[in-house]
Fold this protein.
Amino acid sequence: MADRPRLGPAWTRRQVLLAGSAGAALALNACSGPAEKTSVVRPGAPFAQPGVLSSSDGRLEVTLTARAGMVPHGDGTRFAYTYNGTTPGPTLRVRPGDTLVITLVNRLDEPTNLHTHGLHVSPEGDSDNVFVAIEPGQSRTYTYVLPEHHRSSMCWYHPHHHGTVAPQLGGGLYGAIIVEDGIDQLPEIAKRPNGSSCCRTPPLAPIVPCSTCPT
Ligand SMILES: [Cu+2]
């Protein structure tokens, strides 16, 4: 698959560098192969809004497929890890007391999993359990039951599989979870433009080899 560079120790850092325009320039400097075309992001360009999936009748069921591919970037494209073909993945809008059901399908070449950052939910079983591993080609269904008293908040989801978090997150696997409650219905707030822009271009950070991770 031409659009799906192989994962591995020799690729990981380079692919993550390619995730941003500055990174692309760095990669070109470090690469001994033929020059690669880089895309340019124009200053002031509007942030693209991810698709939005909202709960109804207290429930939201979604399927997120993690896969590698090329995504729009400035005046060109770049490599990214995506949920359902985009980075960020779809924005999930839920309400206190809702049940959020996410089936994660792993089309990567390495294990992954899912973590909901900020939700007040159980960390066990099929809820926000970061100790499970979803192998390539496999899937898992997570069920998150939000408490009735959950605060209005902007949370997010991302992989949390030990050893692969940094390249997967840095490569583009993340999305927003918005918990709405009564405060969002106040006229002064409800009339405001509503959107989310969580890191359209991933930050460039050094990848820490796992041997140096705290134990
Ligand atoms: Cu997190």
